[in-house]
Amino acid sequence: MNNLPCCPKCDSTYTYEDGSQYVCPECGHEWSRVTQEAVEEQRVWKDAFGNALKDGDSVTVIKDLKVKGSSSVVKVGTKVKNIRLMDGDHDIDCKIDGFGSIQLKSEYIKKA
């Protein structure tokens, strides 16, 4: 299984390693592994209004959210403290009073 990154220039999936470099055979572009790791570490999570989020922020829910496997709903205006950011579809991990540990999508929250 190929876990190498796609070419940043032409988006080819046929990249390969050559020493400390990645190489794209389709367009000939070469880039450093260190550069690729720095790009991956620079992911920025944003709320529904484009504000950058970071671990430990407080946020507010902007839409009623159904809780999967339950008949309850997280209401608009619910404040959530001390969020943790993570990769994936639901990119915010947090605890909400009355619900416990829950994961939210950043598109349904705003920075408080």
Automatic annotation (TrEMBL):
Ranges for domain Protein YjdM N-terminal come to: 4-32
According to the record, the signal peptide region is none
Q: Where is the Protein YjdM C-terminal domain?
A: 46-112
Q: Which domain of life is it from?
A: Bacteria
Per the database entry, which stretches of residues form a coiled coil?
A: none
Would you identify the family this protein belongs to, as annotated? Belongs to the YjdM family.
The protein depicted here goes by the name: Zinc ribbon domain-containing protein YjdM
Tell me what organism the protein belongs to.
Comamonas nitrativorans
